[in-house]
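Here is one such protein, fold included:

. . .
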Amino acid sequence: ATDWCGVGALAAAVELGFDVPGQLSLVTLSDSYLARQTDPALTAIRHDALAMGHAAMELLGKQIQGVQVKQRKVVCLPTLMVRSSTAPPAIPDAPTDSAAKGKDRSGFRA
């Protein structure tokens, strides 16, 4: 979700009584200034817009110059900006013999 959706989700979660990140972790997409201004600050996936724009302009410039440009895939890797709206994954308690009954190999109750 975009940062605006993340802000809405955070507000709704707090209104419903959820502890963020204690009970619910939130991650947004885009990492605008807004993501850093909430409490807790939103963890976000940052896309390098400058690198994407540079790659696009390089290809467009070649086309404008009349250079035959082959179709190609340009990969701009995102960066996870970890902030206080996410918690580490919960580690389940070690099952006891009685608790292990009725569970499949994945650890979920059958």
Remarks:
- The longest helix spans residues 49-64.
